[in-house]
Write a structure and sequence with these properties.
About 45% of the residues lie in helices and about 10% in strands. By secondary structure, the chain is α+β, with helices and mostly antiparallel strands.
């Protein structure tokens, strides 16, 4: 081995050791390597009172009944737009099932989301879907080809947008970044209540959920393409 090769090998070994050593200090340090002490992300949510749990459970059951009616419907519109209803049921069901209401106010938000989902289900059962013609903030859903789960998205539709396609509009994506307390409940609420950090004129802005927080890579990247 030449001196040049020895120097290069020494450099690579040193770089590897440095990277490994520094890697052990990332995140929460050595505690991340112990199953019993690793910090849970996301954190355990708040306790849900018996009364709130009963109300949420009843709302989920009612919405589930409507969803099954839509599934059995022969209407092409119901089949196409069912994900726009499913997003509300999934968000609240998972938050209740896995303790992902991270603040007390999110329990109230969950109840509001169930009402919004039920309203859409009732409209769709009647053969109507007014949210598809809505401008401003709109939440929609789609079934991912990755795992056949329903995934939520947020849209900001400019007032200049017309369904007849008379004017072209740019499409921008906004990736929300890391958030340890992000959930489908507070994502849907935020996308229903706030325009977000960008709202260019005559531009459609699409906010992917990105499966909680996977940096819009791999499955998250596919989610952006599917949305």
């Amino acid at each position: 081995m030449t001196d040049g090769n020895r120097t290069w090998c020494a450099f690579l070994v040193g770089a590897f050791v440095l990277a490994f050593a520094s890697g052990t200090s990332w995140a929460d340090g050595s505690a991340d390597n112990t199953a019993d002490s690793v910090r849970r992300i996301p954190k355990i949510g708040v306790e849900v009172s018996d009364a709130d749990r009963a109300e949420l459970t009843a709302g989920l059951a009612a919405l589930h009944t409507s969803i099954e009616q839509l599934r059995q419907s022969k209407s092409p519109l119901a089949t196409e737009l069912l994900p726009d209803v499913l997003i509300f049921h999934r968000a609240v069901d998972q938050a209740l099932r896995y303790r992902e209401f991270f603040e007390p106010k999110e329990v109230t938000i969950g109840k509001a989301l169930l009402k919004a989902g039920q309203e859409r289900a009732d409209q769709l059962l009647a053969g109507d879907a007014p949210w598809t013609k809505q401008t401003g903030r709109v939440v929609r859903g789609y079934i991912s080809k990755i795992d056949r789960t329903v995934q939520p998205i947020g849209l900001l539709i400019p007032a200049s947008y017309k369904l007849d396609g008379g004017q072209k509009h740019r499409l921008d994506f906004w990736f929300h970044g890391r958030g340890e307390n992000l959930s489908e409940v507070n994502f849907l609420n935020d996308r229903s209540m706030n325009d977000g950090q960008i709202a260019p004129a005559d531009t459609i802005v699409l906010h992917p959920y990105g499966r909680y927080c996977n940096a819009n890579k791999l499955a998250g990247e596919i989610d952006s393409f599917e949305a």
